[in-house]
Amino acid sequence: MRALRRLGVAAVAAALLVPTLASCDSEPTGVTAAKNPPPAPPAQTLELTPAAETKDLPVSTEIGLTATNAAVRSVHVADAKGKLVAGRMRPDGTTWVPEKPLQYKTAYTVTAVATDGRRAVTSQTSFTTMPEPQRQVGTGMYLFDDHTYGVAMPVVVEFSEQIPESARAAVEKRLFVETTPPQPGVWHWMSGRQVTYRAPQYWKPGTKLTVRAALKGVPMGEGRYGDDDRRAAAKITDEKLELVVRNSDKHIDVLRNGKKVKSMPVSLGKASTPSSSGTMVIMDKQASTIFDTTGEPGDQYRVAIQYAQRLTWGGEFIHSAPWSVGDQGRRNVSHGCLNVSPGNAVWLFENTHVGDPVTVKGTGVKLEKGNGFTAWDLSWKEFVKGSALPIPDELRPEAVNPPVSSASPSPSPSAAPGVAPSAVPAPSAMSPTPAAR
To answer: pTM for this structure?
Structure first.
């Protein structure tokens, strides 16, 4: 009986002990839920620009998007008839860019959606574009659809009027270049009327270039707007061809993929009309042309020229010069051009491309910036200083490895979208084209 009593007491004690031990480790589930509810999901927001009902906007207007705790998933822009406008986001996700210029005097509605993967937020806005402006700046691009260019071919955009510094960043932001394979680059303002794009090194052979100068309706200062939206898709040659001209021994070396394949004698500009030293680019090729300096200062002449390849706006060419064959490789007798024999002129004409680099050394006269396609006459450190936009960290001179000075012909080798008539693009009507020398 005592034993039973003792067992009963022990059982009661054990029964009392169990809940006491459990209460030291945790509280009942119901209590926990009441004291610590799950956190509310973060609020999602999606703000759009332009503000609703904004009027008289340029036809270059982009849709700005600021999403909080969500990612933009879709943007739909439609005109008053419900017709959708094609476009795409910039890589940084800040704005949506129409694939073509908007229409003048047209109302548009915007519907955008952002989501965190579980919930979505929708935002809308609307705006109306301006009438066609009276003052428009002419634009042109030295890149032509379906053409093949040399590895030093820059992308060059020109303007019929000066673009003030205050408007250059906005203009530059509307210039898109895509390369395959990727080779990011930077724009450089050679002057208020010309901006040039290149990568740190020459394009890789076989590169595909897709360029869009989306300038129609872009404000360009002083109440002026861009006149057109231009595009081009071109290719870089499958080989790297470079010409190196030495005044010291008056020879041209032709390098193919870094290896010398030909050397030929040359006569450069005489003392009173010296050739320029620096890295130029073949800009134009003409099998037959006329050099005419009548009415200009200096020597007056009008002569038929064969196999001419333009290097500068100032009139420096590589061309056939049968009259100076005896001087080639010995003395300089030209008006600034690079004179070669008829046979060598034919060989060069058949083997070179618009866009091939030509580096002249030792004449004592430096190539003038902007006198031709002079992007490669600048070191990368100098080139990036000409951009109106901040330079991406990976393209800063200290980050480019190895640092490249394109004035040297040795080592040689950004992101959405020109114009074209002939297989050999002639200089733009906007550009000065003095007679050759």
So the answer is: 0.82
Domain boundary among 341, 372, 403: 372
In a domain, 321, yes or no: yes
- The answer to whether residue 415 is domain-embedded is no
- The secondary structure of residue 420, as a DSSP letter, is -
Tell me what percent of the residues of the chain surpass a pLDDT of 70. 82
Asked if 319 is an active-site residue, the reply is yes
Phi and psi angles of residue 108, each rounded to the nearest 5 degrees, phi first: -130, 145
User: Within a domain: residue 20?
Assistant: no
Judge if 273 and 162 occupy the same domain: no
Query: Residue 337 catalytic?
Result: yes
Q: Both 150 and 204 in a single domain?
A: yes
pLDDT tens per residue, range 280-320: 999 999 999 988 777 666 676 778 899 999 999 999 999 99
Q: Does residue 416 register a pLDDT over 90?
A: no
Describe the chain by its helix, strand, coil percentages, rounded to 5. 15, 35, 50
For β-strands 120-129 and 107-115, DSSP reports them as antiparallel
Which residue among the candidates 188, 319, 335, 353 is catalytic per the annotation? 319
Active-site residue, from 147, 188, 335, 337 = 337
- Alpha carbon dihedral 214, 49, 92, 203, in 10-degree steps, equals 10
For 44-63, what is the mean pLDDT? 97
C-alpha pair distances (Å), 174 with each of 171, 179, 215, 219, 409: 5, 17, 6, 11, 32
Which residue range(s) make up the domain with 122? 45-129
* Exposure string for 72-95, b = 16+ CB within 10 A, e = fewer: beebebeeeeeeebebeeeeeeeb
Based on the fold, state whether residues 197 and 269 are members of the same structural domain: no
Most distant CA pair in the chain, distance = 142
* Statement: residue 401 has pLDDT above 80: no
How many domains does the chain contain in total?
3
Give the C-alpha separation, 370 to 434, whole Å.
14
Residue 343 has φ and ψ, to the nearest 5°, of -65, -45
Q: Does residue 359 share a domain with residue 314?
A: yes
Tens-digit pLDDT profile for residues 67-96: 999 999 999 999 999 999 999 999 999 999
Q: Is the pLDDT of residue 133 over 70?
A: yes
